Amino acid sequence: MPLMPAVIAVATLCLPLGRPLAGAEPPEVVTGISDAVKLGADRDELGTVRVRGTVTLAYRDSSAFAVQDDSGGIWATTYRQPKNSPERAARAILRAGDVVEVSGRLDRGGYAPLILVDELRIVGHEPLPEPLAADLPRLFRGGDNCRRVAVEGVVRAIESDGRYDGLILDVDSRRILARFPPDVSRDLAADLIDATVRVVGVTAAVRNARGEFLCPSLSIGAATDIDVVESAPSPPFETPLIPLDQIAQFSGAPLPRHRIRTRGTVSAALPGNVAFLQAHAGGLRVQASAAGDMQPGDVVEVAGFLDMSRQIAGLTEAVVRRTGREPAPEPRPITPDEIATINITARRRGEIATPGDFDGCLVTFPARVVEVKPSAGGGHVALSSGDATLAAMLDDASFTRLASLQPGSDVQVTGVIQLQLQGDEGLRSVSSDPVVQQMSLLLRSADDVTVLRAPSWWTPARLAALLGAVLAVLAAALVWVALLRREVRSTTLRLADEMRSRRNAAIDFQATLRERNRLAANLHDTLLQTLRGIDFQLGACQAQGDKPAGNPWEYLDVARKMVNHAAEELRGSVWALRTMPVAGKSFAESLEAIARQTGHGHAEHIAVRTSGQAFEVPQFVAGNLLLVAQEAIHNALAHADAGQIDVDAAFDAAAGTVELTVVDDGRGFLQGKESGPDQGHFGLTGMRERIERLGGTFVIESRLGGGTAVRAKVRRHDYDSRIDVTAAEAAAESPRS
């Protein structure tokens, strides 16, 4: 078994440092160690002390040492001092028997008070104090800490933790660890096992993190502190043989203190030098002290010490020898419920379980897998069998083969049953037999688990996952429907707004077209006729000029030319107002007519081109595009000083779009600096508003000396034909001025 932790190291390296209360006066310096211990036991009165005593223990590789005087003993440590301090230097040469003066601050310690050394002086050397005869009841209840005592016991084992060696002693049927450094173990006899020895050492405490005492330990300083009182009664395999099923049974004599010997057949061999020997319906757990090569079916003799720590007899620190070979014991078919019933019935009747308690026996039974949990070097499988739930453990790398077991699998398991017993609470815990609290199963290998039936694919986890997925899909569908309705509502509103805007644009176009036609008719009937009348009157004046009174011919001729020119201009304006050649013509033809009429009388060359597969453009859309083209051409003619004007109409039948582009090579302008409504120019703004009412895009690109490009792009919709009809009807119903 592993050694107890190093008490001195625990006391010096793992303990919190005490602090005197702020503002409190330091306690009086004391010289007696027992007084210092009493002072340190009170957390509220920790302070500085100075003691003088003899060093009873000082391991070379530890900063702690033990000091004792006539009144008691105390541990001290220099671990808080710097490595090159005088105190560390004095500690390095400290030996048992040195007389020292130690001053420092008391610390509460992990169990008993100790001194955190501030000053250490070696003042002499003297023989070690005589050891006290151990008061065992006091020793095992935590008394005489750090005192040099003598203890007698039987050596069960000699073990090592790599830093210190130790004797495992049976002292009055209780185990205690006597620790010593390796240089002491070299001087020990090899046949100490099972011998009765007297050891002298300094007591220390094994405690928990709450400062509660658990058990004592001894620290031995020299090989001379170990004295053999009685050699082992006999070699291990010459002790009397006790049948396997009679170990720890009534015999009229106390339970043995020395090694006992038994014989049996190995039913299971597990890692850690653990084996189980089986006899009838009972088994024996054997913890060997050295590695062995035991296999199921081996007939062996074992000699070891009785261990009742599980409240079921076993052997520890055992030596094993193989004496034969026979068929391995067959596992007995029995369920955990049946084992529990046998033990409960025997306890209730005050009888020995019949045919046995089955602890340590190789059994087999069906079960259901509840959980599989791997761990470092092994793992366990939680099993359900009847009313019992138990863990099947395997401390072996082959456990990875069991990791694929699915919860819910029905399996047949084989292994060694171990019972965990516990006494009742209160007074009955010391006056009644222990009860079976829990069972576990030790597997020999992964082959001890055989799958009888794989679990249904529809496990609770999968059902829960499926239900969760369905709920998630349903929730997603509801969210999608809500979003879709919201999107449909948004799209509907947007479409309605777009249709309303296009309808308004169509109505505005039709109304504008009717008003232009009306104005054109009025101009033709009034102003143009009036100008013709003037021409007639001027002709009459010319006729009168034949009279000798004057010669108005030259002036009248100029007037006639001016009137004719005005008439021609007015005729062009009338055409521009009246003519919007849309109905009955294609968009391309209307565009060519607009370009030809707008550019009439100008030197600039205007080229009209179309591309893509042309389609019928709704009348109000085509009309607005033609007005934009007319305005763009007019601007280029009036302001650009251009030589070439290119008008392009690009059709995209798949997308249902028409893109109109008017590009000139004129002087251009600086964008952002062009004339607008504030300066009385509405051309660009009007073009942009026309296209945006149709839901299209309008872009002007220009730079000084680089010409200007006007781009308008609109989309045809299926409902445009209905808008054309509706707009025409609405325009027809509007009152005429």
Quick structural summary:
With 737 residues, the chain is an alpha+beta fold. The protein contains twelve helices and 29 strands.
- Taken from the alpha-carbon principal axes, the silhouette is elongated
Rg over CA atoms: 57 Å
Could you estimate the helical fraction of the residues in percent? 25-40%
Strand content: 25-35%
Task: Walk me through the structure.
It is elongated and about 180 Å long. The chain contains twelve helices and 29 strands. It folds into four domains: 226 residues, Beta Barrel (OB fold (Dihydrolipoamide Acetyltransferase, E2P)); 210 residues, Nucleic acid-binding proteins (OB fold (Dihydrolipoamide Acetyltransferase, E2P), Beta Barrel); 124 residues; 146 residues, Heat Shock Protein 90, CATH 3.30.565. 29% of the residues lie in helices and 32% in strands. Strand 14 and strand 15 form a beta hairpin. Strands 1-2-3-5-4 form a five-stranded mixed barrel. The longest helix has 85 residues. The chain starts with 6 loop residues before the first helix and ends with a helix. It is of the alpha+beta class and 737 residues long.
